[in-house]
Amino acid sequence: MTHASYPALRLRRPRATAWSRALHAENRLSPADFIWPLFVTEGDGVEEPIGALPGVSRWSVDRIVDRAREARDAGIPCLGLFPNTPIERRSDDGAEALNPDNLMCRAIRAIKDAVPDIGVLTDVALDPYTVHGQDGLLDPTGYVVNDATIDVLIGQSLNQAAAGADIIAPSDMMDGRVGAIREALEEEGHANVQIMAYAAKYASAFYSPFRDAVGSRGLLKGDKKNYQMDPANGEEALREVALDLAEGADSVMVKPGLPYLDIVARVRDRFAVPVFAYQVSGEYAMIEHAAAAGTGDRDGLILETLMAFKRAGCSGVLTYHALHAARLLGA
Ligand code: PBG
Predict the structure, then answer these.
(1) Which end of the chain has less Cβ packing within 10 Å, N or C?
(2) 236 labelled as ligand-binding?
(3) Mutation test of ligand 1: which of 210, 217, 253, 287 has the most ligand atoms closer than 8 Å to its C-beta?
(4) For the domain that residue 197 is a member of, what is the CATH number?
């Protein structure tokens, strides 16, 4: 036996025991990394399971408050809210988004009343309010018009901020909306309301369970490719992020999550700003179906994918697994 037969370095050495693995871990997941998206629906005492999202329900306002308490008790710092607007309140112009008593605003107020120490993030886009399921206003050809849509998004943002939203998250992908919303928030006395821009949001096949959840799937005509990004593009994501930051975004989001971790890592390297990823509905469903089919251990799949976001450089993750993962992590 000669010394040449020994490996120069044994990278397995620090992996040998649990205490040593803990000591050498480069990243850690905690409940504080999560934003929990919740779906709100009309009624009292209502829980409506969503078929396309096993384990996820729509909740009436009274019951969403219970979810907020659970989240706080599990150490989750922030909720994201999405309304399932009744069909009779949807219109071509999405005017219900401006109603100070709409489902979203009632949910925000109820949560902030009952659980003031949890953050509330609200999605800004018109798709839960339009009869055509698009995120903005249409011209006669069906094209989503940019600048007129922004006027409505400003009103929607101010409506949410007045109800108590802490983070406004424009998911519509109109050009220039972050700057316009920022200016309006400042002018109307909401200087401390943050903007998390859905900066690199792709036209993705992974959103369809979400569209079921907010009731826009059957309504949607066409696709969203003339405003959401082409999955072929990476450089363009950096331009989107640069613009949203210049317009005053406090943080940026990449969406979907796992298929776009390269974008997360590039944004983080280039800009050194808080980056969030949205592990979207189709990703959630994929994990649930894989686990149900016996492909892998459910908790293992959940925690491994969530850790991947941290490793890629995320400050946090929007995930439908937030409550379960937070409990696994033992807040
Ligand atoms: C609305 C919006 C969508 C999602 C979040 N905000 C759907 C879409 O753009 O069609 C998707 C989230 C998910 O799939 O979990 N603009």
Answers:
(1) N
(2) no
(3) 210
(4) 3.20.20.70
